[in-house]
Write a structure and sequence with these properties.
By secondary structure, the chain is mainly alpha-helical. The protein has four helices and two strands.
């Protein structure tokens, strides 16, 4: 077995162990309300961080380029309550057009 497959196997077993830890530790009891409130905020915070890194990051520096215009266009589309597919298309189109212009 190569080092890559060993790494994949170890990560797979670790992931399964982490997923099993919650039900085993709680034993069928519900999460405390304070913890439930925190867990409900994790997904939006993580998604926002990923979007910010992808829109502004380039290796080890902050870059303000066409991706930021696409992100702004997506924000406007979301503010106007457009469906998600329309938001993605608008963001991609604005980014592509701004790259053509510049």
């Amino acid at each position: 077995m190569s080092g890559v497959w060993l790494t994949v196997a170890v990560v797979g077993v670790g992931t399964a162990a982490i997923k099993a830890l919650g039900p085993v530790a709680l034993g069928g009891r519900p999460l405390p309300e304070r913890l439930t409130n925190v867990v409900s905020l994790l997904a939006p915070a993580l998604l926002s961080a990923l979007v910010a890194v992808q829109a502004l990051g380039s290796e080890r520096s902050i870059v303000l380029d066409e991706r930021l215009l696409g992100l702004a266009a997506a924000g406007v589309a979301l503010w106007l309550k457009a469906p998600l597919l329309v938001v993605v298309i608008v963001a991609a189109a604005v980014t592509a057009i701004s790259r053509l212009v510049v």
